Amino acid sequence: MTYRDVASKSVLIWACTAVGSRMPVAMAPLALVFLVRERPGGYTLGAALAAAYVIGEIIGAPVLGMRLDPARGRRHLVVGLLGGAVAFAGLGVLPGAPSGVLGVLAFVAGFMPGAVTGGLRTLLTSLVPERAVAQALSTESMLMSGVWAVSPVAVAGLALGIAPRAPLLLAAALMASSVAGLWLLPARWDEETHQGEDGGSSAFRVLIRAWPVYVTGAASLTLLGLAELTLPALLEQRGIGVGWTGPMLAGMAGAAGLGAFLYGLRAWPGRLRNRSVVLMGGMSAFVALAALIPGAAGIAVALALAGTLQSGALITRNLSLREAVPPGAAAAGYSVMYAAAGAGYAATGSLAGGLLQVVAPSTAILAGVALGLLLTALGWWGEVRGEARAKASSTAGDAGDDTGAGLGARAEGAPVARRGDA
Prior knowledge:
- It is a single chain.
- The chain is an all-alpha fold.
- The chain is built from 14 helices and no strands.
């Protein structure tokens, strides 16, 4: 169980494909602001376009994710990526279009690739041995931390150094190039996990039962969003230059990559849900410390430590989701969790904006930490309750087997979520 199991040509191709598909997502909100900032009311319009993009992601991830069939996975991903590439190209080619047209293009750019994250994550876990799944997810987390650290710098450099449309044209080219990478990867990621004729309805029921995992995943992104969105105001409150925001957030992203690497180095003790609670509790403590520490160095260290634990928390959530749903619904589950995390991030933005009107930035951060802890506790309780229900159902099933033993053996149930017979 080492990173050697992940080092392969297929995983390298997957990594290039993932960067091509995810870099545009990381670039999009800031790129949309730069695209229209010189127009009258540009910053307001840019914020609205970024919101339209995020709404497209939040809607597209569950809607398209639940229709993603492992048997035709590549075809679905290609359509989504091409649709996103065309929308990004439209934004770059038509920067002076009416705001309504730009809003529709931004929405489509977020909506069409909505299922790509879930599909690519499921594809990655199919490329490595079962024993190396945690290392594969850690590798993905490290890769994405790098993408999110580089993308703001790339957007600002291209928009200011070349043209406001340049970041969006680059996003279109990257997303289109990821289609080529998909053709070098398997067309399907699991031959034995077709969703069946009633795949849509059964997948929906299975995904609903996994709600505690989504709640805890959203909590981790809520804390991350809170730290990012309120940091400039917090630095101002402490009399620290707002220009330190970028380096501090870059340090947080780099620390998240380090945390993902450390998580994959060994097998950690305890149940996944308990591990998640410990990591979320630690992350909450460090974010709270960042709100209370007066010095720039202390804030930077606290945020870096929070980022280190946050990547581990996300990996545990992905592993928990993998246990909670059947293999055929894994891609849909990852897509729904992506949407839940996006919704949590967006809600955090609204919460932070409202609180900053009436309380100090440090108080707003502490209120957000309390909300994150509440969501974490709710998710943990839901997982415990779900396990208790499953045990009770299993006990009742065993009793039924004993009662009917004299009438002949019952047929075996279908495997459920890799845990054996029903």
